[in-house]
Amino acid sequence: MSAAAPNKAGMFDCRDSFAATIEDLAANDPRIVTVVSDSVGSSKLGGFKKKWPERMVNVGIAEQTVVAVGAGLANGGKIPFVSAASCFLTARSLEQIKADIAYSNVNVKLIGQSSGVAYGELGPTHHSIEDMAWLRLLTNLTIIVPADPWQTEQAIRAAAAMTGPVYVRVSRMPVPALERGNGTFEIGKAETLVEGDQATIIANGTMVHRAVAAAKTLAVEGIAVRVVNMATISPFDEAAILAASETGAIVTVEEGNIRGGLGGAVAEVVTANIPVPMRIMGFPGFVPTGSADFLMEHFGLTEAGIADAVRQTIARKK
After folding, report:
1. Is residue 250 within 8 Å of 202, Cβ to Cβ?
2. Mean of the per-residue pLDDT values for the chain?
3. Would you call 11 helix, strand, or coil by DSSP?
4. CA-based nearest residue to 232, from 155, 137, 138
5. Is residue 67 within 8 Å of 96, Cβ to Cβ?
């Protein structure tokens, strides 16, 4: 387990888990380096910089360069972790991610920090709700959206161990450690956190603990809902989606745009195989300036909102 510690409310900042894990990996593998775009503090890489200043490259506020430098380091035999705010890392550098990383299939690990609406008060320029839609189009790029500190650690370790490009989406929004038994993490495999046969909620990232809470609310009403943590967007666990279709209703929940992300990926599988009523929850497009909590509440991405969406979707069953 990483050294990430909870706040007074028992919630975790997954950036702490990322930072602790990358330091642990770097201590045992001199090939691991970090590349940042004036994002040492926001990536929580101050400890890494202090221990290995020669293994950190700070290119300044130049996200296209940060990706290109990462590709060059990978071609030189290093394992670069390129860490920057996800809104800028993926949008400003999309061409470099496409050509230098994915198409070239190089061993770069992209870490999109403070994803979703974590920078809520800074407005739409800093919201990162489109990244899943455009990145999942890129061949060769593994995409992981961990849900809690343990899964963040496992995702970083898995990314370091595999050869090839990876994008890990790390939020700064506080989340609890999910209840699980002897959990295992495998790229491309979904995790079932709650069993149920009347509907399925498929979520990832910061939405997973809210989905679990919604399922518990519904269980009190006698509605048995499965909760699937779909941490890997690419490669996609189609078998888990087909199994979800068998419950007769699916609700997807993501801290992202409702078009092209997790919900879109699930819909592609469902409509081509076992069509069932679906509801895609997320943000409908550009969203206003406001705190992350306000935006979640405003767009129904809450325990109550998810539970209500499940009830409505079950009601559409034939």
Report:
1. yes
2. 95
3. coil
4. 155
5. yes
The CB density around residue 62, as the number of other CB atoms within 10 Å, is 17
pLDDT for res 182: 80
The string of pLDDT tens digits covering residues 164-207 is: 999 999 999 999 999 988 889 999 999 999 999 999 999 999 99
Q: Write down the pLDDT at residue 7.
A: 78
Report residue 37: phi and psi, to 5°: -120, 75
Q: How far apart are CA 103 and CA 125, in angstroms?
A: 27
- The span from the CA of 63 to the CA of 18, in Å, is 20
Pick the CATH number of 14-170 from 3.40.710.10, 3.40.50.970, 2.60.40.2470, 3.40.50.1820: 3.40.50.970
Residue type, 167: Y
Q: What is this structure's pTM?
A: 0.95
Q: Is the dihedral of CA 123, 173, 292, 195 positive or negative?
A: positive
Could you read off the pLDDT of 265-312 as tens digits, one per residue? 999 999 999 999 999 999 999 999 999 999 999 999 999 999 999 999
- Max CA pair span of the chain: 62
pLDDT confidence band for 8 (50 / 70 / 90): low
